[in-house]
Amino acid sequence: MSNKILAFVVMILALVPECSMAQKPNAPVWTNTFADSTRLSTNRTSSRPETNRSAGIAIKDETHIVLFSLLSTGSLAIRRADDSSAGAWCFLVQVLNMETGSVESSSTLPAGSYSSQMAFTSGGFVISDPGRLTFYSRAFEKLPSKFEYVPLSENAARRLPTLVRIWAGRVYATPNGQQFVLIDSDGHHSRIYIFDGKSFKNTATEELTEIDPGSVSVGDAGFFYTDMNSHSHVYFFNFEGGAEEWKRPESSNKQVAAHEPVYISSGEWLDVMHTITLVNSKESNILFQERKTEGVLGPAAIAPNKRMAAVFKDDVKTGGIFDRDLHRTGVAVLVVFLDRLGTACEIPIAPMPLTQFAMIFVGNSRLVVLHDNTVSAFQVPCVE
């Protein structure tokens, strides 16, 4: 009798790994940890790691991705003659193999502020520091050309001398790397610089009066953005059409609460906040709404074939009877089908990111996620 019981127990234990694998179809294909988490740049503008623009992922070629993250050097900053600083911050840039996640090359590039940002283009790397852009080749060599400008916030600093010139302009590269955009704003007015991604030359400059671009999503043909002063509208700027091609869906303020517009094409965007909404930008039609949540959704990544989207999702709960505030308890990625209604799966992200988060589709079947000092690759769609 005891032998039968023992045999039964052995059979059950033998099935445990197989069952656990069946319950976790969204386990990462590979995971890589880099740097010391204490050196990661804290998101000074928001408590949400997904809004930290000092870190990101980009596709370098068919077999490699580029990972960059702003780190503290542990040294004191040196004040330069132009009132900028150097020495305290740097970007760690790594080139990873898509299939294995192994690091094949890396470098550290100096940054001038804890608000510095980076973009990766067809010509190399762009670092945005307060009042200037610095360019590096794909081989991490500093290029002689640079771009300097007077930030609009300088005017505010003159009115309020207590303000310090520390905020860098936001830079966004197109997915194909052929162009990139620099957005400079003082909270009331904005200036948009458009550059060639190969030569780094400024090809166009646009002025926005009484508009402060909030959420921005750049595609190969242009970019969507919202106004920080009024989230009821979504605007679209076409690279080929210039300033005359700004568009605003007439009924978006009635049908869609525009919080995080995500570029799909010049005719469609994905709007995310507490629901995932697919919108036709020209007719303002809601194509579908999916997954209403108590937490915040966004940002999102779109697969190259436009058939799937990966959306950031946080799980929240209230603190109790005397604490009605919402507290983040977990983070996940929702993989949603765009060609039909439905969610493919939910990928939990652990440990929960505290300082930075980014993600990108590598082809149509793999999603790479950066969370703090860890980068993981997941096979998608991960239908259970």
The secondary structure category is: mainly beta
Largest sheet: 4 strands, antiparallel
Q: What portion of the residues fall into strands of 2 or more residues?
A: over 45%
User: Measured on Cα atoms, how large is the radius of gyration?
Assistant: 22 Å
Mean pLDDT: 77
Number of helices: 3
Basic shape = globular
Helix content: under 10%
Strand order of the largest sheet: 1-30-29-28
Quick one: how many beta strands? 30
Kindly report how far apart the N and C termini lie.
39 Å
What are the segments in which pLDDT stays under 50 over at least 5 consecutive residues? 15-23, 160-164, 243-258
Structure description:
The protein is mainly β and 384 residues long. It contains three helices and 30 strands. It has a domain of 94 residues. It has a four-stranded antiparallel sheet with strand order 1-30-29-28, with no helix packed on it. Strands 2-3-6-7 form a four-stranded antiparallel sheet, with no helix packed on it.
